[in-house]
Amino acid sequence: MNPIKAILFLLISISTTLMLPCAKAEPSVDPFRVADAYHQYLSDLMQVESKLFLDPSHPLVYSASGSDDAKLLKSVLDERRFQPILEIYKRKQADGTADVNLVQLLEPLTQSYLKAFSTFGVRYENEFLDTTQMSIAVLMTSTPASGSKKSIPTTTTALDTSTEKKRKAIESSQKLLKALESFSENLRSMVAKQLNDLVEKKKLTPSGEKRVQEMVHQLLKKTSE
User: Fold this and answer.
1) What's this model's pTM, rounded to 2 decimal places?
2) How many domains does the chain have?
3) CA 10, 16, 17, 19: dihedral to nearest 10 degrees?
4) Which of 59, 67, 104, 180 gives a 20 to 30 Å CA spacing to 18?
């Protein structure tokens, strides 16, 4: 399989499989400001994707003479802006207030720039690498923490049926978490391999190769932990 298409398939699978609710984080000092930042990002993301929808054969590029569209795209794909938004989204998932699926919302963006890079090559390298880095950020934060596992009661009585039901429920949830952790590890290894293929096949500029090698190191380091 073409390595770029393989990356597309692997990263899109994240959105439907691995984005699990996480433990609640400490509340922000200014929740209204956080909410404004979150909804502004969603608005900007959907604005970029609407432009991609209108002209899918020529996605926006950073180098469009400093245009407002180019600035908007760079802001949406900026990892420093995206990472806090991802954390807010995880908190919203945990407390049941998430009103959109952020990960699925990112799919058109990821697909557009993977396809653009496959078609036009290094002209879209920066945009491709930035969308890939965003997808990796999702993957890296989607594995359930081992600390979330609960202890299982080891003894029950014939009358204590509720405890037995709880024990079985906890066992089932732990098995699911273990399976998802294993799947996440395999997925990280597969994405790392496909990214390495891009380097080996000389599809990137030297600076692009360096960025990909950093992503691969990030993926494999997480897998070995």
Assistant:
1) 0.76
2) 1
3) 110
4) 59
